[in-house]
Amino acid sequence: MTSKSQASLEAFELDVLPGTEFELGGTTGSAGRSTATNSTAHVHIHGELAEEEDVEESSQTTEGLRNESTLAPVDTGFSAMAFLVAAFVVEVLVWSFPFSYGIFLTFYLEDPRFASQPKSGTLLPLAGTLSSGVIYCTGPVIYPLLARFPQHRRLCLWIGGLLCSISLLAASYVTKVTAIVALQGVLYGIGGSMLYAPCIAFLSEWFVKRRGLANGIIFMGSAAGGLVLPFVLPPLLRAHGPSVTLRIFSIAIFVALLPTLPFIKPRLPVSKSRGPRRPAGRRAWFKDWTWWTLLLCNTVVGFGWFVPQLWLPTFAGALNLSSSSASTALAVLNGASALGPLILGFLSDRFSPWLLGVLTCVFASAATFVFWGVVGNVAPGLMVFGMAFGLLGGGWSTLWSGFLRIIAKDDPALATLLYGFLMLSRGLGNVLCSPITTTLSSFSGPTVSQTMYGVRAKSGYDVADGRFEKLIVYVGSCFAGAAIVGLAGWGGEKVRKVTTG
């Protein structure tokens, strides 16, 4: 094989990475023709077999270069921006409904048809946990499958959208609590997972240099939906009841997805979306300490993040705040959570994700202990806590793209695979949040201030006779522990950069 032919093949192999551009002796066509000509001249000396081999490889190279010229640009252009907007819409539709299930739960428990059934008080809350928990915990199944069979990603997208709509429509016609759990909980979660996963898989193809910012914009969707729905659902539920409201949202999801899903498509051909053929590199992540440090840190953050979302309205009620003030406190948290991903996504394209992760965890821990624990006994303190906690902790998952860029390099299939495990580890906190915090909040005893000073001080720790004290300490400790793990990861990254030169 000639040296020029070899160079062409090497360039083609590099080209499987999203966003990789190169030039080989002028224009694409002239490079291919030059390679073919030189290869043919060389093989006449070495025999007929070498000639056939070189000409075939040169033609494949030329064809690959021509295909590359037809691909849409990364990080910019109409197709990339259309994908970004469409993925934002999917984020809103998939996540905001499970995160607002608590509003449905209130009306379910007030309806005698559901509240009178055995174990309704235990089963009905489970539907909300499962609707989001299934999306998280099916990650290690669906993301590897999409990485293995990328040709089915768009089919998966459409099936997931139909399941989300059908699950809510079917749930509107049932009266059994177990059916509510199966349809509005499990089936919706499966549909949401199938709808959401292809968006994440396509993201690494459309965005390279601005991937962190794109991640942040998409992840704003869940918080934006969580900000709006608490003000939309109660009037609908009061006017029409849960059944009709579910039908309205079922139709709304279907109508919103019809013009949206055509823009969620791959940038690369299926052959390239598998990533470079480096089997050994694909297995290297399993022995990479960076990956396991990230997984541990991500799990600890997940165990702390979901607690305020679940308990803030109850805490506001214990302060004797009005229902509107309680809704405002949750809205402030969700609103700040929409800004957090955008800010951290922008920064993650410029700074180490480990550094950003450590800083956000440290400040989120401090905000919990100070604004919720010390001054959380008054409404302004609680609002400040919601704003600070949402702004700092809400953008953590946006950093995933920065971490995976280090571990998976630019292999989109490997990045998709690892994303599924990050979803699972975060989902563990989502699923186990309710039983853990219910146990912690049931304790009522001496408060921190009593232990330290011998008198009862007015603080967030003292609310409801200290009912929420352990819960506040638990959240702050989770983020402090995550900061320590992240600090180890950041230090290790620095050492590796020095040793590798």
TrEMBL record:
Membrane topology: Multi-pass membrane protein
Region of interest (Disordered), residue spans: 46-67
CC per GO annotation: membrane
InterPro entries from the UniProt entry: MFS, MFS_trans_sf, Proton-linked_MCT
Keywords noted in UniProt: Membrane, Transmembrane, Transmembrane helix
Keyword hit for Cell inner membrane: no
A single GO molecular function term of this UniProt record: transmembrane transporter activity
Cellular localisation: Membrane
Superkingdom classification of source: Eukaryota
TM stretches of this protein: 81-103, 123-143, 155-174, 180-203, 212-232, 244-264, 285-306, 326-347, 354-375, 381-404, 416-437, 471-490
Family statement drawn from the similarity comment of this UniProt entry: Belongs to the major facilitator superfamily. Monocarboxylate porter (TC 2.A.1.13) family.
The name this protein goes by in its record: Major facilitator superfamily (MFS) profile domain-containing protein
